[in-house]
Specification:
The chain is of the alpha+beta class and 118 residues long. It has 2 helices and 6 strands; from the N terminus they run E-E-E-H-E-H-E-E. The protein has a 6-stranded mixed sheet with strand order 1-2-3-6-4-5, with helices on one face.
Length: 118
Amino acid sequence: MADFQRIHVGPRLSETAVHNGTVYLAGQVPDDTTQDIRGQTAQVLAMIDRLLLEAGSDKSRILMTQIFLPDIQDIGAMNEVWDAWVAEGHTPPRATVEARLANPAYKIEVVVTAAQKA
């Protein structure tokens, strides 16, 4: 395992950085913004699954999650999708806040920090 690496490096940001066994994901937003909060949440969580796998981790190893919703009224529907996805017995610390997002069509953005598998 390398001491430090970046994955999916772009001109503005990297999707993932790994340092000393900790995985840091950039904020994940949906690709298909025509979907409702449930659909957008499912998309974002699938992206997180893929990025964590690429970095040698998974959702059971999440250390902290930050969820940003432009409309906090969506928290109930978002939680339905989250609760079905999160690893039972491994629910991470989490903050959910209302915030204006970069694209008004985004209904959710999620930032995750996780530990790599040993």
